[in-house]
Amino acid sequence: MSHKIMELVEKSSLKDDKPQFEIGDTVDVHTKILEGNKERIQVFSGVVIAMSGSGTREMFVVRRIVAGEGVERKFPVHSPKIEKIEVKRKSVVRRAKLYFLRQRSGKAVRLKERRM
């Protein structure tokens, strides 16, 4: 009973145009940033290394290398702060989580591109 009620409550906060991306894809995440009273859009681009949750609690982790240092950021899929998610490149992966990329550097981080 309460599970059905929770689904109805969560349904209003779900995005209609959920982006189609998978683990291993290189994406650009456009997020709204508030600085004082101004709002701007900041782009975080990297490889999706993990996805978790379902419904309104669905999250994904994006990893990129900045100045030789690995940076990961976790985003909620249905957040109103996320303007859009652009898929730049699709890759072939055989794992559900790509945490092994954390120990790799340089050319070893590259993933094989999926042909469309």
Describe this structure in words.
- With 116 residues, this protein is mainly beta.
- The chain is 9% helix and 42% strand.
- The protein has one helix and five strands.
- It has one helix at residues 2-11; strands spanning 26-35, 38-52, 59-66, 69-76, 82-89.
- It has a five-stranded antiparallel sheet, with no helix packed on it.
- The model has no long low-confidence stretch (mean pLDDT 89).
Briefly say what this structure is:
The protein is built from 1 helix and 5 strands. It has 116 residues and is mainly β.
- Uncertain runs: none
Please state the overall shape, judged from the principal axes of the Cα atoms.
globular
- The percent of residues in helical segments reads under 10%
Strand segment tally: 5
**Computed Rg:** 16 Å
Q: What strand order characterises the main sheet?
A: 4-3-2-1-5
**Average pLDDT score:** 89
Taken in chain order, the helices and strands follow as HEEEEE
Report strand %: 35-45%
Count of individual helical segments: 1
